[in-house]
Design a protein that fits this description.
Blueprint: H1 6-30, H2 37-40, H3 45-67, H4 90-116, H5 144-159, H6 163-191, H7 193-201
């Protein structure tokens, strides 16, 4: 990695910290269970198929800020970054802003994970008794963690503008869209009309301005009820 490429260095730290936190969540949720697979391996077949693509995708996403800045674009056009030193001033400004937004996504994601507590899972567990979370970040959008993850990926593309990163972004965002809809079908079966009403009131990914102050709030009484 080029030492002077601060946005790429910031992104590398942010992604490493993000997925380290996911690992910590997996460990915490799996305590008292026989093995980590109970949390890591999806129970549903369609989610297992997603994982076949998602696991190497995440590994490549984490590696990209370390690898791409060290590659010459003319020798590695898919992996290497174009020469940005002669780019207009708007390019480094945009990359720096994207790095700051990426850090913000990490901080807000941690707040979402803390809010979920032991309700957090990597995938759908049909036998799981989970609360219908509708307060805090879940009053902003139905899938706040996915919204932040997609934003983090967009920031990654702005900071590491390579063809490979664009492909990773397209796959990641598509999988998140599919997974969110899959989870909604499951939650509708579990919570019925309560979840249907929640969906009517709360957008899926894009927040409405009047909900923004709810981010980071505490669970309401309804959040603790099944």
């Amino acid at each position: 990695m080029r030492l002077h490429d601060l946005p790429a260095s910031t992104l590398a730290f942010t992604l490493s910290a993000y997925w380290f936190c996911v690992g910590v969540k997996v460990f915490k949720v799996s305590r008292g269970r026989r093995h980590l697979g109970w949390v890591l391996i999806p129970k549903l077949r369609n989610e297992r198929l997603m994982w076949i693509v998602w696991v190497p995708l995440v590994a490549a996403w984490i590696a990209m800020p370390y690898v791409a800045p060290a590659q010459a674009y003319d020798r590695h056009p898919w992996m290497g970054m174009p020469n940005l030193e002669a780019a207009p001033i708007v390019v480094p400004v945009l990359r720096s802003l994207a790095a700051l937004v990426a850090v913000g996504c990490l901080i807000l994601s941690i707040r979402c994970w803390r809010f979920m507590g032991r309700n957090w899972r990597m995938g759908i567990d049909p036998g799981q008794e989970s609360a219908l979370l509708s307060g805090g970040p879940f009053a902003v959008v139905r899938h706040p963690i996915y919204t932040l993850s997609m934003t983090l990926m967009v920031c990654s593309v702005l900071i590491i503008p390579t063809r490979a990163m664009l492909i990773l972004a397209a796959l990641h965002i598509t999988l998140l869209q599919l997974k969110a809809r899959n989870e909604e079908r499951f939650l509708l079966k579990v919570h019925g009309d309560a979840y249907a009403k929640y969906c009517d009131l709360t957008p899926r990914f894009v927040p409405r301005p009047r909900f923004l102050r709810s981010f980071g709030g505490r669970p309401t009484r309804g959040d603790r009820a099944l």
